[in-house]
Amino acid sequence: MALLEVRGITKVFGRLTALRGVDFTVGENEFHGLIGPNGSGKSTLMKCVAGAEAPTEGTIRFAGRDITAAPPAERARAGLSMKFQITSVLPSLTAYDNMLLALQGRASLSSLVFSRTRGLLHDRIMDALGQCGLADRATDAAAALSHGQQQWLEIAMALAPEPLVLLLDEPTAGMNLEERRMTGQLLIPIKRRCSLVIVEHNLDFLRDICDVLTVLDQGAVLESGRVEQVRSSRKVQEIYLTRV
């Protein structure tokens, strides 16, 4: 059974149809890449899955239940976590405190009132920062981190609630080649913990980490399947040569 199942999702903004009957599924511990030209509907689709946008038509099922109309907070509690394209760390707080806030979001009110969570969560915070190569930057303000390091911090924060599915919208945007390579190394080990849906323009980057690719073009699915099947598709090659 699919962990995440999107069926017939259509999204209309006034006269613009951003998504046209999109279908895709994500299995357990599967990395699923979404690619396509600018304006193809990738980010809109991610927002519909996360609950930031309501689809005009279609259904979204997660872990066996219909979440099409569920608010974002309910989806998050069910095990969906999303990192949007624009970094949203709190720049004046340290990397450590950004992680602390992400973890405290699931703590009980009583533990927060009596300030017990910081000590209890210390090891988890340092472990998460270490996995993202940020252990030695724990006490630095997020604003002092490089763009790539801020992105890694936000990925760690999105993983903090231990989601079943992590949604990443262009996590390598603005990164240099070395940061992009390190991001791939950071993501691969999380397959043991959760599934991943990732929007990315770089086909080579997705080839190295994804099991399945879905290609969107003008709001509709152009191709979907195993990575090499999609890479060899003449339709996909055409849009990447002419419109990406």
Task: Provide the descriptors you would attach to this structure in a database record.
alpha/beta, 10 helices
Report what the structure shows.
The chain is of the alpha/beta class and 244 residues long. It has two domains: 1-79 and 164-244, Rossmann fold; 88-162, no CATH class. The protein has ten helices and ten strands. It has helices at residues 42-50, 72-78, 95-104, 109-113, 117-131, 147-159, 177-187, 203-209, 227-231, 234-242, and strands at 4-13, 16-26, 31-35, 57-62, 65-66, 80-83, 165-169, 195-199, 212-217, 220-226. The strands form two sheets. It has a six-stranded mixed β-sheet, sandwiched between helices. β7, α7 (177-187) and β8 (195-199) form a beta-alpha-beta unit. α3 packs across α5 and α3 (95-104) packs parallel to α6 (147-159). The chain is globular, with a radius of gyration of 18 Å. The chain starts with a strand and ends with a helix. Mean pLDDT is 88; it is low at 107-114.
